[in-house]
Design brief:
single chain; 96 residues; mainly alpha; AhpD-like
Length: 96
């Protein structure tokens, strides 16, 4: 769907995200894994799981990343419900 020029620019941008000036390789992989999980991108999650093994990321570190993504997602869903209740004046006290 992208033009050739757009694809080249995107590829250049994406490649630049792996050549970090401030993040070490392990941190970059863990951030990428968290982002892939948060965006529900299965190919990206697999990509970062495979990179994690090469970067000597432990299963415990992966577990902590997963827990953090789960916590953020749960908080977002709680806020979503609160916003709907407030926006539409839903009175949950009237529910059984």
């Amino acid at each position: 769907m992208l033009t050739k020029r757009q694809q080249l620019l995107y590829n250049s941008f994406y490649d630049s995200t792996h050549n970090n000036e401030y993040l070490d390789n392990k941190t970059e992989v863990l951030v990428g894994l968290a982002a892939a999980l948060a965006m529900d991108c299965k190919p990206c999650t697999l990509y970062y799981i495979n990179r994690a093994k090469k970067a000597n990321v432990s299963k415990e570190e992966i577990s902590e990343v997963l827990a953090k993504v789960m916590a953020v997602a749960a908080g977002q869903k709680r806020l979503q419900m609160k916003e709907v209740i407030e926006t539409y004046n839903v009175d949950l006290e009237t529910y059984v």
